[in-house]
Amino acid sequence: MILSFVLLFATIGLFVAVPKGFIPSEDKGQIVGTTQGAQDTSFEALVTHQQAVAELIAQDPNVKAVNSNIGASAGGGGATTATNSGSLFILLKPRSQRQASADEVVQELRTKLADVTGIQVFLQNPPAIPIGTQQTTGLYQLELQNTDVQPLQEYVPKLVEQMKALPLLQDVNSDLQMTSQVKLNIDRSKASTHGITAQQIENALRSAYGAYQVSTIYGSTNEYQVILELEPQYQQDVNALLSLYITSTSGQVVPLKTFATISQDVAPLMVNHSGRMNAATISYNLAPEVSLGNANQQIDQLIQSTIPDNIATSFTGASQVFQSSLPSLIFLLAIAILVIYLILGILYEDFIHPITILSGLPSAGFGALLTLIVFHVELNVYSFIGIILLVGIVKKNGIMMVDFAIEAQRTEALKPATAIYQACLVRFRPIMMTTMAALMGTIPIAIGFGAGSESRRPLGIAVVGGLIFSQILTLYLTPVFYIYMEAWRKKLRGFNLRYFFFERA
């Protein structure tokens, strides 16, 4: 009995200590990536850097094909994308033709692409179940909100630098990017004396820099867009801006520098919003063999020491679902055990021996969690499902023994110790047969064969470890638990009888 309670508290301790994750990565033969140039990079420079990245990726022996996009539509799905970003879709060779898994290919490419100057590359092995709709450079996100952009501009870069220093994280990046900005200061009184309005100035700037389509030429087999813009060498020269000429309402051509000046400043490349609040999203990936629970715990400590209270912080996407799923899974496990207890109580018309049947669950949980720690597998959604499966598999050992012992006591008037001992002898063979059948079915899953084995392996490891450990201990713990529960039953009956006579008196 002491060992039973020790196992119970040890199981709770292992649950706290085991690394916790959400959805494990799965090798689907695909890798997605996001590229990001300097905030003030030109389109031509971004094209050059993007092509260098795509060529380097294509040279990898594990890669079959690379699809590369840049520009505002690189994010796809109508998502708003910064003009200095691009996307990559990498198709890997079949698993039998490459030595490395998708995660290993990501690590190899990350090292190679670090040498490409002028552009950053963020690679992801997309999860089997995508969570969230926001497209970022990492699988996990942290969102910061404030009514004003200025506090975000001050504290987000600080938090990003501290997160980059954490060895648990990779590809830390923020969508709050600062870029140089050219401001055109117009002297409206001078402009009005020349008969020039603000609308005319805006039209001239749009024609010069906005890639404005003014016409379409229709051919016999095709059509051609006519784009009005400055030549590239003038688009990249700030001083050329003041050399533009504006046509006034009277037809007079006036240079822009006559009534305007320019100044340079720094401003966000793109301002995002969440609801009605200004928002900045920090995205990140996990280093190899790092659990999401440990990483988020480290991030929470950085937030408490760096971010003031007037900035709201919250995990979003997969990180947010992970934070809320763990309590839900624990509640689901508790409900499953409660339902089993109620059903057993109805079947046996007893509220004591269902506890005897469930007494083997701590040993199963201890074995499952210990096996996960030994094999360096995190407790994620799949392994938690394995633990819930263990509840149904392990309790059948107790049902086989307790059912036989109760029947023997009722029909043969055996003592509890004799009845449960006979139950162990008679039920030993079917218990071993059913346990071995379950083990033989889950060992291939635990070893991890075939496509998608990365997702199923935590489930198999949890079930195999829990079955082996509980099988060894249940044959010894359940009979002892049965004897103690029978003694407790007699005490309860005596107490009820004395209470009844006392009330009658």
Which key phrases capture this entry?
4-stranded antiparallel β-sheet; 5-stranded antiparallel β-sheet; 505 residues; alpha+beta; 14 helices
Compact summary:
With 505 residues, this protein is α+β, with helices and mostly antiparallel strands.
Structure description:
The structure is a single chain. The chain has 505 residues and is α+β, with helices and mostly antiparallel strands. 52% of the residues lie in helices and 20% in strands. It is built from 14 helices and 15 strands. Strands 5, 6, 13, 14 and 15 form a five-stranded antiparallel beta sheet that branches. A four-stranded antiparallel beta sheet has the order 2-3-1-4, with helices on one face. A hairpin with a 4-residue loop joins strand 8 (212-218) and strand 9 (223-228). Helix 9 (318-348) runs parallel beside helix 12 (381-412), helix 11 (361-374) packs antiparallel against helix 12 and helix 13 packs antiparallel against helix 14 (453-504).
Summed over residues and divided by their number, the pLDDT gives a mean of 83
What Rg do the Cα atoms give?
34 Å
Quick one: overall form?
elongated
Order of secondary-structure elements: HEHEEHEEHEEHHEEHEEEEEHEHHHHHH
Low-confidence stretches: 73-80, 497-502
Helical content class: 40-55%
Strand content: 15-25%
How many distinct beta strands?
15
Number of helices: 14
* First-last Cα distance: 39 Å
* Structural class by sheet pairing and helices: alpha+beta
Q: Tell me about the biggest sheet?
A: 5 strands, antiparallel
